[in-house]
């Protein structure tokens, strides 16, 4: 790639000719303030805080959009530049209603920290005090227009990252307002509540109900880990304060999600309403009784020993690979997967979805089950003009996006339509495997993207747990359930007929009517280990908080030591 | 050398900024070695003397005609005027009523509040100051020489501002001395 020579603040730099001044400065470690610019978003030069002085340019230029050129000389911190940035800050503060003293984001606000940096102790302009609304119609986060600086990060994130295009702007100039769809309340819009806009907002205009006032930037630590809610295996950051999880953000550096999360991954753990299991519980005449580990573990071990070959160990996709290995080596009985087996062909890279020009989704509600993958599909449709064909007998959340929808067996019709595509991506879960295989054979240029039913189904399979269902004659069950909320009806039926059911779970529900013993286990943000996602990549879980409890593996090892 | 003279007053406030001034704790002993405090709302003498003072400090926003009078009198009687706290600097939390009509604000406060005995009315005596339609920052009414924001400003920011002035320098608030909350 051709390179150009530029001088920034006296430093000679050689950078690719496609770089902007901001990119060149950042590569050299020269800090330029920014509010509308964001590493994951295309620059638009809306906020003017990144103004720099470029020699031979008539006026100051925004660094985020201005391309570098040969011999360019840039000053990022001259008195003229600093004055201009102060002026921009004064305008931003005087336009809407910024009250730091009771703002949820005080201490974590990019606007506030810039004002501190530029020593803004007051502003000269009269304030307009526009009467602006607060939209709290969404369940997990709130939009306060009073604090919005119209940087349009949210709009660009919703468009170019999530592909949803829910957000837009109405009116012009000082009357501009961020709106959803055709100016409807956010909660009634096409918003999928993934919270990407929340994560990129530089001020308190978008704030999370659960983490409001819970901890400012200086008070929190960030731990990189993974979401195990589905087999996409998104990279997350646990935001921790004093050993408590206060927020979850997408990890910008992580593949395959590149910073995106879905509603479930970002909010569900913080809004969990089920009752947590902290100590071992044993069923008694009136519900469950708390007991100690010795009693509960020896009771489970005795039942396991007595069951002989009538023991079934069922493991959910929330379990780590290490837990699966401990189960395979330490517990007797028949091992199976609580979520069912992975479809054949799993292991393709999800980046295929960002290259395909046609998506064929077979028998899988991608937007509901693997939402972050559906963002890639929407992104491809919006930005590259890719098309979508759905083969499904049931309604799916992407139906409105599809060019055509056929019944799940209409392979021939789909193949005929797809014949002209350069690179069709065939997307499927467990139910669509056989149809997808036929289609892949008929479309030689196609790539397949298969999703496993549970977050770590492939990791469990790698440890040797591959059976899709427990043995029919099992009478005694040990269920490694973790956060699992909706066991399949087949599993529930099997458990209802069993003589004894021990469950290792984070929450009482839905096990309180099924289990004889419930053993506590850490949640995903409390444990470390590894998982394998649908791409077949091994990903590390890192504990955000340190619970005073036995680890997933330690519980298995305890039972194991008592049964051998 | 004669001591530097200081007067303070409050306008539309919660009084937190004066509490923060008292939060300089034992440094107040050192302060009075260099500064003669002539009047404050929390001492016996409430009003700046006609002969004036060196430094005047105003906390709070300007919400009514009386407060504008107090602000103007302080401006006339001091050489250097400090606007102390968010309300004085930007109008602060007091400006939250700027989104409502004054009559609605009065009715809410004197008639509709849950704890108000039914049948009460808004007091309208000429003795009582008249609320302005919009709450203003001090510098929208009089010239301000130094702004010290904060809700309240930290005691050390107040101490820094005063000691810098005593040393003959213009205080520049940075780092943890500059705060909006």
Write out key terms for the chains shown:
heterodimer; A: 564 residues; alpha/beta; Ubiquitin-like (UB roll); Alpha-Beta Plaits; Rossmann fold; seven-stranded mixed sheet; five-stranded mixed sheet; 15 helices; 27 strands; 25% helix; 22% strand; B: 181 residues; five-stranded parallel sheet; two-stranded antiparallel ribbon; 6 helices; 7 strands; 21% strand
Give structural notes:
The complex is a heterodimer of chains A (564) and B (181). In chain A, β23 (476-482), α14 and β24 form a beta-alpha-beta unit. The radius of gyration of chain A is 27 Å and the shape is globular. The model of chain A has no long low-confidence stretch (mean pLDDT 95). Chain A folds into 4 domains: 3-77, Roll (Ubiquitin-like (UB roll)); 125-271, Alpha-Beta Plaits; 281-342 and 457-563, Rossmann fold (3-Layer(aba) Sandwich), CATH 3.40.50; 350-450, Dimethylsulfoxide Reductase, domain 2 (3-Layer(aba) Sandwich), CATH 3.40.228.10. In chain A, 25% of the residues lie in helices and 22% in strands. Chain A is α/β, with parallel strands linked by helices and 564 residues long. Chain A is built from 15 helices and 27 strands. Chain B has a single domain, classed as Rossmann fold, CATH 3.40.50. The model of chain B has no long low-confidence stretch (mean pLDDT 95). Chain B has a 5-stranded parallel beta sheet with strand order 2-1-3-5-7, with helices on both faces. Chain B has a two-stranded antiparallel ribbon with strand order 4-6. The longest helix of chain B has 13 residues, at 65-77. Chain B has 181 residues and is an alpha/beta fold. Chain A binds chain B through residues 97, 99-103, 106-107, 112, 115-116, 119, 121-123, 126-127, 129, 131, and chain B through 83, 86, 89-93, 95-96, 98-99, 134, 137, 139-140, 144, 147-149, 151, 172-175, 178-181.
């Amino acid at each position: 790639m051709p390179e150009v020579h530029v001088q920034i603040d006296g430093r000679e730099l050689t950078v690719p000719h496609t770089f902007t001044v901001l990119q060149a400065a950042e590569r050299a470690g020269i800090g330029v303030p920014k509010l509308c610019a964001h590493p994951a978003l295309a620059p638009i030069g809306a906020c003017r805080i990144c103004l720099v002085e470029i020699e031979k340019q008539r006026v100051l230029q925004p660094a985020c959009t201005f391309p570098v050129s040969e011999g360019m000389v840039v000053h990022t911190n001259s008195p003229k530049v600093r004055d201009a940035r102060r002026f921009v800050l004064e305008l931003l503060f005087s336009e809407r209603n910024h009250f730091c003293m009771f703002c949820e984001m005080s201490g974590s606000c990019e606007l506030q920290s810039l004002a501190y940096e530029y020593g803004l102790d007051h502003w000269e302009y009269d304030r307009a005090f526009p009467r602006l609304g607060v939209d709290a119609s969404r369940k997990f986060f709130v939009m306060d227009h009073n604090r919005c600086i119209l940087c349009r990060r949210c709009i660009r994130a919703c468009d170019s990252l999530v592909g949803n295009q829910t957000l837009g702007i109405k009116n012009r100039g000082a009357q501009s307002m961020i709106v959803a769809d055709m100016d409807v309340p956010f909660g009634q819009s096409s918003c999928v509540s993934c919270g990407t806009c929340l994560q990129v907002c530089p001020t308190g205009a978008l704030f999370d109900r659960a983490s409001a006032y819970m901890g400012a930037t200086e008070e929190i630590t960030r731990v990189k880990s993974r979401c195990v809610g589905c087999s996409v295996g998104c990279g997350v950051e646990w935001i921790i304060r004093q050993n408590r999880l206060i927020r979850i953000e997408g990890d910008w550096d992580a593949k395959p999600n590149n910073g995106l999360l879905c509603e479930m991954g970002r909010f569900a753990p913080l809004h969990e309403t089920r009752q947590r299991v902290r100590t071992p519980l044993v069923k008694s005449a009136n519900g469950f009784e708390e007991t100690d580990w010795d009693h509960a573990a020896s009771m489970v071990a005795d039942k396991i020993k007595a069951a002989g070959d009538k023991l079934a160990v069922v493991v959910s996709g929330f379990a780590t690979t290490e837990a699966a290995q401990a189960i395979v080596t330490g517990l007797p009985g028949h091992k199976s997967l609580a979520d069912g087996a992975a479809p054949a062909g799993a292991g393709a890279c999800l980046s295929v979805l960002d290259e395909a020009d046609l998506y064929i989704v077979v028998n899988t509600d991608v937007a509901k089950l693997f939402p972050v993958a559906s963002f890639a599909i929407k992104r491809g449709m919006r930005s590259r003009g890719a098309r979508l064909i759905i083969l499904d007998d049931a309604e799916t959340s992407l139906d409105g996006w599809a060019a055509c929808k056929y019944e799940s067996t209409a392979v021939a019709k789909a193949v005929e339509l797809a014949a002209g595509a350069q690179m069709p991506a065939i997307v499927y879960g467990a139910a669509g495997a056989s149809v997808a295989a036929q289609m892949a054979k008929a479309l030689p240029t196609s790539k397949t993207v298969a999703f496993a039913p549970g977050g770590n189904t492939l990791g469990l399979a790698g440890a040797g747990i591959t059976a899709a269902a427990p043995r029919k004659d099992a009478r005694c069950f040990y269920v490694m359930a973790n956060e699992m909320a909706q066991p399949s009806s087949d599993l529930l039926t099997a458990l209802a007929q069993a003589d004894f059911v021990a469950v290792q779970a984070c929450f009482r529900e839905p096990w309180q009517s099924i289990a004889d013993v419930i053993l506590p286990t850490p949640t995903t943000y409390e444990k470390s280990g590894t998982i394998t996602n649908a791409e077949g990549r091994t990903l590390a879980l890192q504990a955000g908080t340190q619970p005073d409890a036995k680890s997933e593996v330690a519980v298995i090892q305890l039972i194991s030591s008592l049964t051998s | 050398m004669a001591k530097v003279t200081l007067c303070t007053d409050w306008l539309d406030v919660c009084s937190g900024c004066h509490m923060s001034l008292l939060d300089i704790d034992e440094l107040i002993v050192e302060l009075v070695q260099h500064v003669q405090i002539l009047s404050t709302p929390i001492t016996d003498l409430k009003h700046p003397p006609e002969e004036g003072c060196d430094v005047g400090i105003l906390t709070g926003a300007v919400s009514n005609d009386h407060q504008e009078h107090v602000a103007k009198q302080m401006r006339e009687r001091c050489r250097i005027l400090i606007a102390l706290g968010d309300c004085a600097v930007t109008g602060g939390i007091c400006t939250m009523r700027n989104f409502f009509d004054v009559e609605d604000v009065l009715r809410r406060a004197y008639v509709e509040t849950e704890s108000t005995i039914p049948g009460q009315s808004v007091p309208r005596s000429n003795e009582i100051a008249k609320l302005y339609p919009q709450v203003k920052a001090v510098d929208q009414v009089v010239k301000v020489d130094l702004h010290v924001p904060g809700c309240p400003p930290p005691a050390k920011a107040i101490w820094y501002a005063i000691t810098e002035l005593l040393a003959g320098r213009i205080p520049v608030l940075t780092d943890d001395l500059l705060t909006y909350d």
